[in-house]
Each structure stands twice: as structure tokens, then as C-alpha cells.
Amino acid sequence: MQDPTIPGQHSAVAALPRLERQRLHDTVVDHLRNFIVEGVLKAGMKLNERELCETLGISRTPLREALKVLAAEGLIDISPNRGATVSSLSPTEVRDTFELMSGLEAFSGELACERITAVELAEIKALHYAMLACRAQNDLPGYYSLNRQIHDRINEAARNAALRQTYLAVNRRLQALRFRSNYQTTKWDNAVHDHEDMLVALEARDGKRLAAILRKHLLDKRDAVLTMMANETTEIPEKTGT
């Protein structure tokens, strides 16, 4: 099955036919994960397999294989009776998970300042400036993709396998909420300012400073998400008649 979003896929698949199935699997997983992160598939939504197959241009077998991967990541729930639904977190779970993530991010930053190479730092700086360009264009998906890569590169630069494994597992559950935390312009601009400070601390190899910035950055996102959830809960539909 071809994916038009991958340039030159036809020739690549023809040359490497044994990789076609794995490539399709990875592409479907990536698309579905992005749908969840960007809110196309919202928390609590029941997934319609037929519609997803039509949207992605695939059969049910690769879709169901991808859903199993996302279920293992905690992004969807699969029930024998209800089928698959997008996972949702309670306010308490949001608070607890963001607080855990703030500690993981802070520890990553502290270790990264000790272990990052000049090449890795240059790559993070390039991602940072590309991210700023997306912000100037109000391109939230592009901005968030680069933002996520920056945090990921800092974690990789920490060079701690146990931290890496835990970071990836926890972060997957928060991606959609981290994306939503930038919906408000002021929150988005505050996040950009935090990233400017992160880069300065990383260049100075100031681990304590970077850890403090990252911890606050994640706790601010926690507060933004909890506020959004509270507002959504208390919203009352307008009356259409008396």
C-alpha cells in the first residue's frame, strides 16, 4: 500500500519488497499517533475502523496492528465489547503525570549539560531556530514537531538508558496535552521564551539552571492543561428556547 506523503516510496518499495509491510506498519502508527496528538482523534473518541481505513487508504489488518501498538503505548484503549477508543486522563492523572514528567525533564537537562557534544548542541540550536520560524507563521503542528524534537534531543544527550526508557513511556501519554497547552497565544509565547532560556543554559552547561527551567516549563503546561479541562467541564450550552 502506497503512502503519498512519502516521496519516492514506489521505487523504494520495488527495490526492497521485504520492507514494504514494515514500512506500512510504521507509517500507519505514525499517522494515527499524530492524529491523536493534534486532536484530530480526541480523548474519549470511539474509533471507527472503516472510516480510518478509508482515510489512510489501508485494509483493516495493518490498522488493527497499529492500534495494538498505540494501546501498548497507552494512547488508546481496546475493549472486546466496545472496540478502540482514544485514552483520556483524569485531572488527577494529568497532574501526577506532568509532575513526574517535570522531574524526568529536569534530570535530563542536568545530565545533558554534563554530556552533550558540540555537534548535538548545534543540532538543537538549528531545531530551535526552525521552531521560531514556525511560531512566526502560526504553524502549531510544525512548531510542536520541532519542539518535541528539542526535548527529545536533550533527553538523548543525557546518555542514560534507564532515564530514556522511562521518559519515552511517560511522554507518549502527554503528547496530545502538551500540544493543546499552546492553543492560547500567551501560553505559546511563554513556552517560546522558556525555550530561549533553555538554549542559553544548555550552551553555558548550567545544569541546575536548565533543570529549573525545564521543571517549571512542564509544571506550567500542567497548569494550562488543568485549566482547560476545568473550563471544558464547567461550560454550559446556551439555551435555544424557553
UniProtKB/TrEMBL annotation:
HTH gntR-type domain residues: 22-89
Family matches, as Gene3D superfamilies: GntR ligand-binding domain-like (1.20.120.530), Winged helix-like DNA-binding domain superfamily/Winged helix DNA-binding domain (1.10.10.10)
Domain of life: Bacteria
UniProt keyword list: DNA-binding, Transcription, Transcription regulation
UniProt xrefs under Pfam families: FCD, GntR
CDD domains in the record: WHTH_GntR (cd07377)
Name of the protein: GntR family transcriptional regulator
Species this chain originates from: Ralstonia soli
